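Sat 14:20. Reprocessing the chain from the morning session after the first attempt stalled halfway. Input below, unchanged.
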Amino acid sequence: IDPLFKVGLMIIAACPGGATSNLITYLLRGNVALSISMTALNSLITLITIPLVVHLSLIAFVQEDAAIRLNVPETILKVFLITILPAFLGTRIRKNYAEFALKLEGPLRVILPLLILLVYAGVIFIDKGTGAATRSDFIRIFPYTLMLNVLAMVSGFLVARVLRLHVINQFTISIEVGLQNSALAIFVAATLLKSNDMALVPVVYGSFTFFST
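Finished this time. C-alpha cells:
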C-alpha cells in the first residue's frame, strides 16, 4: 500500500483505547474498572510512545522526519474529563442513589449504543480533513485496518489467556487492545502532520470498529 497509508496504519496502531472501549466493555458485562484503568494509563503512556512511533514510521516508510509533540496538560485533562470523572460520578450515583441508577441502566443500554453508532456512521460522511479521499482509497485501506483490529483483539485475548487471567478480564483486555482511539489518530495525522492521506486510515478504521469489536 501507499507509504503514507503505512504511516497512518502505524499511527492508529499506536493509539490507546478510547471511551468507546469502556462503553463496549460495559455493554458486554466485562470488567469496566479494568477497562477504564487501562484507558487512563495507556492515554498517559502514549504521550511518549506516539511521537516515537510516528518518528520511526516516517523514517522507515517515507524517508522523512517530523518531530511532533502531544500537549501533556491537555491530554491529562482529557483523560480526567472523558474517563476518570464520569466513572467517579457514576460510582457515586450508584452508591448513593441505587434505585435511580438501576432504573437508568435499562434505557441507557439502548440509548448509549445508538448514540455511538450514529457517531461512527457519521465518520464515513463527515470530512475529517481528508478532502480528496475516494471510495477506491477506502476499499483499498479497509482490509488492512480490519486485519489490525482483529489481530489486536486476538493477541490481547491470547496474552491474557496465557497469563491465566479470569475470562471476564481476558475479553476486557481483548476489547481494550483491539479498539484504538481513531479520533486521536485523526488529530495526529491531519493536524500535527498535516497529511490527509495518513488521516484517511483512522477514518476508515473508525467507521467499522464499533461493529467488529
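DSSP finds nine helices and no strands in the chain.
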